[in-house]
Amino acid sequence: MLVTVEDPDAFSPLYDWLLRDEMLRGTVVRPAPVSPADQEMGVVADTVEIVAAHGELLTAVATTVGVWLGTRVRRTRIRIKEGDREVEIDTGTLKDPHEIALRILSHLRDD
Fold first, then answer.
1. In this predicted model, what pLDDT tens digit does every residue of 43-62 receive, in sequence order?
2. Nearest-5° Cα angle at 31, 18 to 103
3. End-to-end Cα, the chain, rounded Å
């Protein structure tokens, strides 16, 4: 699963939040590998890769990301991708953590 933030300044707070979250214990949370574009000396990380060690990953990520976005003062836009399914959340239009989690689950769940 990939979680991408549009604002590079939001990457570190999101990454730290995911690393500390109890619901994600037993998962691997790491910056997604990226390559610099032509004529770039390096890249700014903007994507977190989450590798499941348990079957409840989607619910845990939806809840954790919903709460994190609910704490953000600045408008934040993220994309979450699971396989070929993707959802974008923009806190300019959606701020409630519960509603954010429901939107993520409704777009990414297999059922």
1. 556 888 888 655 578 888 99
2. 50
3. 17
pLDDT of 102 strictly over 80 = yes
Identify the pLDDT of residue 98. 94
Give the start-to-end residue ranges of the domains of the chain: 2-34+44-108
Residues 6+ apart with CB under 8 A from 13: 68
Which two tokens mark 23? 């619901």
- SS3 assignment for the chain: CEEEECCHHHHHHHHHHHHHCHHHCCCEEEECCCCCCCCCCCCCCCEEEEECCCCCHHHHHHHHHHHHHHHCCCCCEEEEEECCEEEEEECCCCCCHHHHHHHHHHHHCCC
Give the number of other Cβ atoms within 10 Å of residue 67's Cβ: 16
Instruction: Give me the half-sphere count of Cα atoms (radius 13 Å) on the Cβ side of residue 87.
Output: 19
